[in-house]
Amino acid sequence: MDSRMNAWTWSLLVLLGLIWGGSFFFASIAVQHVPPLTLVFLRLLLAALALHLYIAGRFDIYSILKARWREFLILGLINNALPHALIFFGQTRIGAGLAAILNATTPIWTVLIANYFTSDEKLSSAKIAGCLVGLAGTIVLIGPGISAGGEAPLWALLLPVLAAISYGFAATYGKRFKTIPAPVTAAGQLTASSLITLPLSLLADRPWTLPLPEVDILLAILALALVSTAFAYILYFRIMAAAGATNASLVTLLVPPSAILLGVLFLGERLALGELAGMALIGFGLVILDGRAYRVLIRTA
Protein backbone atom coordinates (compact mmCIF):
# COMPACT_ATOMS: atom_id res chain seq x y z
CA MET A 1 0.00 0.00 0.00
CA ASP A 2 1.18 3.52 -0.83
CA SER A 3 2.23 5.16 2.43
CA ARG A 4 2.61 8.67 1.04
CA MET A 5 0.43 11.54 2.27
CA ASN A 6 -1.91 13.18 -0.22
CA ALA A 7 -3.97 16.37 0.20
CA TRP A 8 -6.97 14.49 1.63
CA THR A 9 -4.86 12.62 4.18
CA TRP A 10 -3.16 15.86 5.21
CA SER A 11 -6.56 17.51 5.74
CA LEU A 12 -7.62 14.62 7.99
CA LEU A 13 -4.32 14.93 9.88
CA VAL A 14 -4.84 18.67 10.48
CA LEU A 15 -8.39 18.08 11.71
CA LEU A 16 -7.21 15.33 14.01
CA GLY A 17 -4.48 17.61 15.38
CA LEU A 18 -7.07 20.23 16.29
CA ILE A 19 -9.32 17.65 17.92
CA TRP A 20 -6.56 16.02 19.95
CA GLY A 21 -5.25 19.43 20.98
CA GLY A 22 -8.71 19.96 22.41
CA SER A 23 -8.41 16.72 24.37
CA PHE A 24 -5.59 18.17 26.50
CA PHE A 25 -7.71 21.27 27.08
CA PHE A 26 -10.81 19.30 28.13
CA ALA A 27 -8.70 17.01 30.31
CA SER A 28 -7.12 19.98 32.12
CA ILE A 29 -10.62 21.13 33.08
CA ALA A 30 -11.99 17.73 34.07
CA VAL A 31 -9.00 16.26 35.91
CA GLN A 32 -9.14 18.99 38.55
CA HIS A 33 -12.53 17.63 39.65
CA VAL A 34 -12.57 13.95 38.61
CA PRO A 35 -9.80 11.47 39.64
CA PRO A 36 -7.60 10.46 36.69
CA LEU A 37 -8.51 6.77 36.56
CA THR A 38 -12.23 7.49 36.72
CA LEU A 39 -11.84 10.18 34.06
CA VAL A 40 -10.02 7.68 31.82
CA PHE A 41 -12.81 5.13 32.33
CA LEU A 42 -15.57 7.66 31.57
CA ARG A 43 -13.74 8.86 28.48
CA LEU A 44 -13.28 5.36 27.12
CA LEU A 45 -16.70 3.99 28.08
CA LEU A 46 -18.69 6.89 26.61
CA ALA A 47 -16.60 6.83 23.46
CA ALA A 48 -17.05 3.06 23.09
CA LEU A 49 -20.82 3.32 23.52
CA ALA A 50 -20.98 6.14 20.96
CA LEU A 51 -19.07 4.09 18.41
CA HIS A 52 -21.21 0.99 18.94
CA LEU A 53 -24.31 3.12 18.36
CA TYR A 54 -22.71 4.62 15.25
CA ILE A 55 -21.74 1.21 13.84
CA ALA A 56 -25.08 -0.40 14.79
CA GLY A 57 -23.86 -3.90 14.01
CA ARG A 58 -22.39 -3.04 10.59
CA PHE A 59 -18.97 -4.15 9.25
CA ASP A 60 -19.46 -7.59 10.86
CA ILE A 61 -18.19 -5.97 14.05
CA TYR A 62 -19.20 -8.65 16.55
CA SER A 63 -17.56 -11.47 14.60
CA ILE A 64 -14.35 -9.43 14.36
CA LEU A 65 -14.38 -8.58 18.07
CA LYS A 66 -14.96 -12.23 18.98
CA ALA A 67 -12.19 -13.47 16.71
CA ARG A 68 -9.58 -10.87 17.67
CA TRP A 69 -10.45 -9.90 21.25
CA ARG A 70 -6.95 -10.63 22.53
CA GLU A 71 -5.42 -8.22 20.01
CA PHE A 72 -7.98 -5.56 20.90
CA LEU A 73 -7.11 -5.96 24.60
CA ILE A 74 -3.44 -5.32 23.82
CA LEU A 75 -4.24 -2.34 21.60
CA GLY A 76 -6.70 -0.94 24.15
CA LEU A 77 -4.07 -1.18 26.86
CA ILE A 78 -1.19 0.50 25.01
CA ASN A 79 -3.22 2.97 22.93
CA ASN A 80 -5.89 4.00 25.45
CA ALA A 81 -5.85 2.84 29.04
CA LEU A 82 -2.16 3.24 29.85
CA PRO A 83 -1.27 6.45 27.95
CA HIS A 84 -4.50 8.24 28.90
CA ALA A 85 -3.92 7.45 32.57
CA LEU A 86 -0.30 8.62 32.40
CA ILE A 87 -1.27 11.90 30.73
CA PHE A 88 -4.16 12.62 33.10
CA PHE A 89 -2.00 11.98 36.18
CA GLY A 90 0.63 14.28 34.69
CA GLN A 91 -1.99 16.96 34.03
CA THR A 92 -2.82 17.14 37.70
CA ARG A 93 0.46 19.09 37.97
CA ILE A 94 1.21 20.46 34.48
CA GLY A 95 -0.83 22.42 31.96
CA ALA A 96 -2.46 21.32 28.73
CA GLY A 97 0.17 22.94 26.50
CA LEU A 98 3.19 21.42 28.23
CA ALA A 99 1.57 17.97 28.37
CA ALA A 100 0.83 18.20 24.64
CA ILE A 101 4.41 19.24 23.84
CA LEU A 102 5.89 16.32 25.79
CA ASN A 103 3.44 13.93 24.17
CA ALA A 104 4.51 15.30 20.77
CA THR A 105 7.57 13.05 21.03
CA THR A 106 5.32 10.16 19.92
CA PRO A 107 6.66 10.08 16.31
CA ILE A 108 10.22 9.85 17.62
CA TRP A 109 9.43 6.76 19.66
CA THR A 110 7.30 5.38 16.81
CA VAL A 111 10.24 5.60 14.41
CA LEU A 112 12.61 3.91 16.86
CA ILE A 113 10.11 1.16 17.70
CA ALA A 114 9.05 0.63 14.07
CA ASN A 115 12.70 0.31 13.06
CA TYR A 116 13.09 -2.62 15.44
CA PHE A 117 9.76 -4.39 14.94
CA THR A 118 8.93 -3.79 11.25
CA SER A 119 10.66 -4.40 7.93
CA ASP A 120 9.22 -1.46 5.95
CA GLU A 121 9.92 1.51 8.24
CA LYS A 122 13.66 1.44 8.85
CA LEU A 123 15.84 4.27 10.15
CA SER A 124 17.44 6.61 7.64
CA SER A 125 19.96 9.41 8.23
CA ALA A 126 17.12 11.96 8.24
CA LYS A 127 15.14 9.92 10.76
CA ILE A 128 18.15 9.55 13.02
CA ALA A 129 18.81 13.31 12.89
CA GLY A 130 15.14 14.05 13.57
CA CYS A 131 15.11 11.70 16.56
CA LEU A 132 18.23 13.29 18.04
CA VAL A 133 16.89 16.83 17.67
CA GLY A 134 13.51 15.84 19.09
CA LEU A 135 15.07 14.06 22.04
CA ALA A 136 17.19 17.16 22.69
CA GLY A 137 13.96 19.16 22.91
CA THR A 138 12.57 16.65 25.38
CA ILE A 139 15.68 17.02 27.56
CA VAL A 140 15.28 20.81 27.49
CA LEU A 141 11.71 20.40 28.73
CA ILE A 142 12.35 17.93 31.55
CA GLY A 143 15.75 19.36 32.53
CA PRO A 144 14.38 21.77 35.16
CA GLY A 145 12.49 18.89 36.77
CA ILE A 146 15.69 16.84 37.00
CA SER A 147 17.53 19.71 38.67
CA ALA A 148 14.51 20.58 40.84
CA GLY A 149 14.68 24.07 39.40
CA GLY A 150 11.28 24.02 37.70
CA GLU A 151 7.77 24.49 38.96
CA ALA A 152 6.55 21.08 37.76
CA PRO A 153 7.83 17.89 39.47
CA LEU A 154 9.91 15.50 37.39
CA TRP A 155 7.36 12.68 37.59
CA ALA A 156 4.64 14.89 36.09
CA LEU A 157 6.94 15.78 33.18
CA LEU A 158 7.95 12.18 32.55
CA LEU A 159 4.43 10.73 32.48
CA PRO A 160 3.43 12.27 29.10
CA VAL A 161 6.75 11.06 27.67
CA LEU A 162 6.01 7.52 28.88
CA ALA A 163 2.56 7.89 27.31
CA ALA A 164 4.24 8.87 24.04
CA ILE A 165 6.36 5.69 24.18
CA SER A 166 3.19 3.66 24.73
CA TYR A 167 1.59 5.38 21.72
CA GLY A 168 4.70 4.51 19.70
CA PHE A 169 4.22 0.82 20.43
CA ALA A 170 0.52 1.16 19.66
CA ALA A 171 1.17 2.84 16.31
CA THR A 172 3.38 -0.03 15.24
CA TYR A 173 1.11 -2.73 16.68
CA GLY A 174 -1.92 -1.06 15.07
CA LYS A 175 -0.62 -1.84 11.58
CA ARG A 176 -2.11 -5.33 11.92
CA PHE A 177 -5.58 -3.77 11.93
CA LYS A 178 -5.25 -2.15 8.49
CA THR A 179 -7.70 -4.59 6.91
CA ILE A 180 -10.37 -3.91 9.53
CA PRO A 181 -12.77 -0.97 9.02
CA ALA A 182 -11.58 2.03 11.04
CA PRO A 183 -14.78 2.34 13.14
CA VAL A 184 -14.49 -1.32 14.17
CA THR A 185 -10.86 -0.93 15.22
CA ALA A 186 -11.72 2.18 17.22
CA ALA A 187 -14.74 0.55 18.86
CA GLY A 188 -12.80 -2.63 19.61
CA GLN A 189 -9.90 -0.94 21.34
CA LEU A 190 -12.17 1.42 23.29
CA THR A 191 -14.40 -1.44 24.44
CA ALA A 192 -11.37 -3.42 25.56
CA SER A 193 -9.76 -0.48 27.35
CA SER A 194 -13.05 0.31 29.11
CA LEU A 195 -13.03 -3.21 30.55
CA ILE A 196 -9.40 -2.76 31.61
CA THR A 197 -9.98 0.55 33.41
CA LEU A 198 -13.31 -0.30 35.07
CA PRO A 199 -11.86 -2.35 37.98
CA LEU A 200 -8.99 0.13 38.40
CA SER A 201 -11.44 3.01 38.76
CA LEU A 202 -13.67 1.09 41.17
CA LEU A 203 -10.76 0.05 43.39
CA ALA A 204 -8.76 3.28 43.38
CA ASP A 205 -11.43 5.99 43.31
CA ARG A 206 -14.70 4.43 44.53
CA PRO A 207 -16.51 6.71 42.05
CA TRP A 208 -19.92 6.21 43.66
CA THR A 209 -18.63 8.27 46.60
CA LEU A 210 -17.58 11.23 44.43
CA PRO A 211 -19.75 14.35 44.21
CA LEU A 212 -21.67 14.87 40.97
CA PRO A 213 -19.57 17.12 38.69
CA GLU A 214 -20.90 20.53 37.68
CA VAL A 215 -22.35 21.11 34.22
CA ASP A 216 -19.13 22.53 32.73
CA ILE A 217 -17.17 19.50 33.95
CA LEU A 218 -19.76 17.12 32.49
CA LEU A 219 -19.57 18.96 29.16
CA ALA A 220 -15.76 18.70 29.19
CA ILE A 221 -16.02 14.94 29.82
CA LEU A 222 -18.54 14.51 26.99
CA ALA A 223 -16.36 16.51 24.59
CA LEU A 224 -13.32 14.48 25.65
CA ALA A 225 -15.17 11.20 25.04
CA LEU A 226 -17.29 11.87 21.98
CA VAL A 227 -15.20 14.34 19.97
CA SER A 228 -11.61 13.85 21.12
CA THR A 229 -11.88 10.05 21.40
CA ALA A 230 -14.72 8.38 19.45
CA PHE A 231 -14.59 10.61 16.37
CA ALA A 232 -10.83 11.17 16.64
CA TYR A 233 -9.93 7.48 16.57
CA ILE A 234 -11.98 6.89 13.43
CA LEU A 235 -9.89 9.58 11.76
CA TYR A 236 -6.66 8.19 13.23
CA PHE A 237 -7.10 4.66 11.94
CA ARG A 238 -8.15 5.90 8.52
CA ILE A 239 -4.95 7.94 8.32
CA MET A 240 -2.87 4.97 9.52
CA ALA A 241 -4.42 2.63 6.96
CA ALA A 242 -3.76 5.12 4.17
CA ALA A 243 -0.34 6.48 5.12
CA GLY A 244 1.39 4.22 7.65
CA ALA A 245 2.19 4.33 11.36
CA THR A 246 4.90 6.99 11.23
CA ASN A 247 2.85 9.37 9.11
CA ALA A 248 -0.19 8.94 11.34
CA SER A 249 1.87 9.71 14.44
CA LEU A 250 2.90 13.07 12.91
CA VAL A 251 -0.46 14.38 14.14
CA THR A 252 1.34 15.18 17.39
CA LEU A 253 3.22 17.94 15.53
CA LEU A 254 -0.13 19.72 15.19
CA VAL A 255 -1.50 18.99 18.65
CA PRO A 256 0.68 21.29 20.83
CA PRO A 257 -0.19 24.58 19.07
CA SER A 258 -3.89 23.75 19.39
CA ALA A 259 -3.58 22.79 23.06
CA ILE A 260 -1.41 25.83 23.84
CA LEU A 261 -3.83 28.23 22.16
CA LEU A 262 -6.82 26.83 24.05
CA GLY A 263 -4.88 26.86 27.32
CA VAL A 264 -3.81 30.48 26.86
CA LEU A 265 -7.25 31.69 25.81
CA PHE A 266 -9.39 29.87 28.36
CA LEU A 267 -7.18 28.57 31.19
CA GLY A 268 -4.66 31.39 31.56
CA GLU A 269 -1.71 29.10 30.89
CA ARG A 270 1.66 30.49 29.85
CA LEU A 271 4.77 28.72 28.59
CA ALA A 272 8.23 29.69 29.84
CA LEU A 273 11.01 30.50 27.40
CA GLY A 274 12.68 27.14 27.98
CA GLU A 275 9.43 25.32 27.29
CA LEU A 276 8.99 27.21 24.02
CA ALA A 277 12.58 26.32 23.09
CA GLY A 278 11.88 22.66 23.82
CA MET A 279 8.74 22.77 21.70
CA ALA A 280 10.69 24.37 18.83
CA LEU A 281 13.34 21.63 18.98
CA ILE A 282 10.75 18.85 19.04
CA GLY A 283 8.88 20.47 16.15
CA PHE A 284 12.09 20.85 14.14
CA GLY A 285 12.98 17.25 14.87
CA LEU A 286 9.60 16.08 13.59
CA VAL A 287 10.00 18.12 10.40
CA ILE A 288 13.40 16.49 9.82
CA LEU A 289 11.91 13.11 10.68
CA ASP A 290 9.17 13.55 8.11
CA GLY A 291 11.64 14.52 5.36
CA ARG A 292 9.04 16.10 3.07
CA ALA A 293 10.23 19.67 3.57
CA TYR A 294 13.79 18.65 2.66
CA ARG A 295 12.62 16.87 -0.50
CA VAL A 296 10.60 19.92 -1.55
CA LEU A 297 13.65 22.15 -1.10
CA ILE A 298 15.76 19.77 -3.19
CA ARG A 299 13.20 19.74 -6.02
CA THR A 300 12.84 23.51 -6.07
CA ALA A 301 16.56 24.24 -5.80
From TrEMBL:
The keyword DNA repair does not apply. Keywords: Membrane, Transmembrane, Transmembrane helix. It comes from Rhizobium hidalgonense. It is found in: Membrane. Signal peptide: none annotated. Its main location: membrane. The chain crosses the membrane at residues 12-31, 37-57, 69-89, 95-116, 128-146, 152-170, 182-203, 215-236, 248-266, 272-289. The lineage of its organism: Bacteria, Pseudomonadati, Pseudomonadota, Alphaproteobacteria, Hyphomicrobiales. It comes from the Bacteria. Residues 11-142, 155-288 form the EamA domain. This is DMT family transporter. It is a multi-pass membrane protein. GO terms for cellular component: membrane. Pfam families: EamA (PF00892).
